[in-house]
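QUALITY CONTROL LOG
STEP: pairwise intake check
CHECKER ROLE: data steward
CRITERIA: each record must contain a sequence immediately followed by its structure tokens, with no blank fields

ENTRY 1 OF 2
RESULT FIELD BELOW
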Amino acid sequence: MTTKRIVVISSGLSTPSSTRQLADRLAADADGILRERGFDVEVRTYELRDLAHDITNHLLMGFAPPKLEEVLDAVSKADGLIAVTPIFTTSYAGLFKSFIDVVDTQALTDLPVLIGATGGTPRHSLAIDYAIRPLFTYLHAIPVTTGVYAATSDWGDGGDGVRSLPDRIFRGAKEFADLVERTDRSELVNDPFALDRPAGHLIGGLTGE
């Protein structure tokens, strides 16, 4: 049975957070769809708030501490990425962008990405298309057509004639599953000049232990 590896990134700052809740719902639907199609699915979920100091250290020092290295490695080997961020001042969270900045520029090439975002008001739903989608497109990822935005009011009954949040989650997850099903990243080309240890290990005798 073929295993599909899905990495879920949540950049919510509170605990619990609606950002993590949306991430879990997207992952659960994608997992269910792929399993119905006969795939084994491995889902790894990471809270960026737990890696904030490591991300900052990577930006300052140029190498990833072990916990962050694990996440970066998982992203590079994934068959699909679910990325969810809160919207602050009409765009993605700074923590979310900082994480993307430390991801290898080649790691997202041809990687299906399901974008999710949360915010207090529906007015910021367009941030997915004018801010987040171009970011992943620039990095040669493949964002699915449907991005899922959840405002505070969306966690209710989904009335007033607007497509309900569960419907939008399922639609996005299905489009994502369609791409993941066709994705084969098992033969990623390794850079023959890449270091088998972070560059920081060459500076000052760092051992990473």
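ENTRY 2 OF 2
RESULT FIELD BELOW
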Amino acid sequence: METLEDAELCFPQINTSCKKQTRPQSESMFIYIFMSFVSLLTVILNLLVIVSISHFRQLHTPTNLLLLSLAVSDFLVGLFVIPFQILYTEPCWVLGDLMCVLGNIIPYITVCASVINMVLISVDRYVAICDPLRYSIRISQKRVRICVLLCWTICVFYSFMILYDNLKQPGRYNSCYGQCVINVVGVTDIVLGFILPVSTIVILYLRVFVVAVSQARAMRSHITAVKLQSSVTVTVKKSELKAARTLGVVVSVFIVCYCPYFCVSFSSYNLNIGSASEVLMSFVVFCNSCLNPVIYAFFYSWFRKTSKLIVTLEIFRPNSCAACVI
């Protein structure tokens, strides 16, 4: 009888050991294979976005710089976060309490960076649609670079602060040895990390939607004979509206994918790493990092062109960075 009980413990030699939360082998294999596939796909797709925007000069715009920052965040999710999550699906945590906390720092940084990048993208589209004449002055490359730098600096600081109690005393929230539990400050995280930024995003996009509808009506009511300058202006507005629609889809998918995560934060629930609910919630969040490049592929012709040039290795040709991709 004692041997049977010991076999169900993570560490039979330790009295405070957790019991093994076993799952069917077929289920474990499915989780490993599927999450490994999602990880690889996320890395490849976001790497295409990073190389495209970094290499081709035509894509060096303030908006694309924000997309680049978002792609870096998604790339880190595929490269580090998902592989760590595969370890968390094991029935027992064997890497120790400190690694349990450190393994969650990058996810918190990437989540925070994604949220702030979405806010910056919304601001960019708001200025482009609602104040197009002063867009180039208010949204310059230098200002966007500073905002991106501040974004990542704030995210690193915020992540360490929100996990401070866990870092100060690793394992303090574990009920037994071999468990990996992270305590998040529910109200603080949900307000600063979700409610405030998402409210900002929704308000800005509602304003963009109202202006876009009014512009579309004005275009339809225009007289057929217009000046050349006016037709150029209309073309610019159409491109800006298309970009706003595309980024609106990106933002909508982001909100849908991140809602479960922040709802758990709001409840101040202790995340039992490796549980079925935690794996499902994390998977939905990870899907967002993989879906963003897929959205670009459907809506951005430049992404399809640059991806083809990258895959066929034509970017290694002389002056390939000056290629026309828009």
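INTAKE CHECK: passed for both entries
DESCRIPTIVE NOTE, ENTRY 2: The chain has one domain: 2-322.
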